[in-house]
Amino acid sequence: MTPQDFDYLRKLLKERSGLVLAAEKQYLAESRLLPVARRHGMQTLTELVAALRTGAPALAVQVVDAMTTNETFFFRDKIPFDHVRETIMPALAAARAREKRIRIWCTAASTGQEPYSLAMAVKAIPALSGFRIEIVATDISGEVLERAKNGIYTQFEVQRGLPIQLLVKYFSQSGEQWQITPELRGMVQFRTLNLLNDFSPLGAFDLVFCRNVLIYFDQPTKSGVLDRLAKQTAADGYLILGAAETVVGLTDAFKPVADKRGLYAPAPQRVAARQPQTNVLRFAART
After folding, report:
1. Is residue 69 within 8 Å of 76, Cβ to Cβ?
2. Which domains occur in the chain, in start order?
């Protein structure tokens, strides 16, 4: 692959997914994209890039899918799920006692382990008994979401982070594979979504999981995504980022929750700025 071809791929990935591919990552592009090229009868990445240059939207989608990192496993990282059990859900259960409805968004669901882990976590919280829990799981890759919808995992995948008691409770075995029960699958809605695009139609959420996504974006893209996430987060809601991610220096829309690593809440000034509009809507509803 020529330097010009690699530059074209880097630009395409940035424009379509926000992914910033470092100049020294050409080897990664070659290892991930050669199988895509060969599926289309091409022997080199130069041929692949030539096809992309002529305008091949379906091929471009496959290229972005191949370059997207889909590393995930059940209950990945302990701290975020501790926050869910010990801080977030007790607060939301009290605040939503009347409507008994909580909405959660996983912004990079990959093959589904994170949203299903959340579903298992909230099912185990007594304070949420009788609540309607809606989990929306999105990803830029339609291919991985198809796997997620089926909820079928290998022995290796269920052994990564999943406690044996939850495996027995929420999975059924078929040969060497395990499938999540219909009850749990019914708690999660999977949708294809690019975080660079408008996601306001998804509505408002009480909790947003946006973990290990921002690390692949440049600073302006991170700031833009965070600002738009704030608009979808309830005034008393929460945002959870990955261990290597932060809002500091990127946006004033969220503030860190004291002594809770990776946990953020809408900033007071943003909440106050939204209040007049909320009051207008409430007045309109009464008249």
Report:
1. no
2. 3-67 (1.10.155), 78-143+181-278 (3.40.50.150)
Q: Which residues contact 285 (CB under 8 A, 6 or more apart)?
A: none
Average pLDDT of the segment spanning 130-150: 93
**Residue 207's closest CA among 92, 56, 37?**
92
Q: How far apart are CA 231 and CA 11, in angstroms?
A: 28
Q: Where are the beta strands (DSSP E) in the chain?
A: 101-106, 132-139, 152-154, 171-174, 177-180, 188-192, 205-210, 233-241, 254-256, 263-266
- Residues in Cβ contact with 76 at an 8 Å cutoff, skipping those fewer than 6 apart: 113, 114, 117, 161, 211
DSSP annotation of 246 reads -
State the Cα–Cα distance between residues 211 and 113, nearest whole angstrom: 13
pLDDT-based confidence at residue 193 (cuts at 50, 70, 90): very high
State the virtual CA torsion across 161, 165, 169, 175 in degrees, nearest 10.
70
C-beta of residue 85 within 8 angstroms of C-beta of residue 125: yes
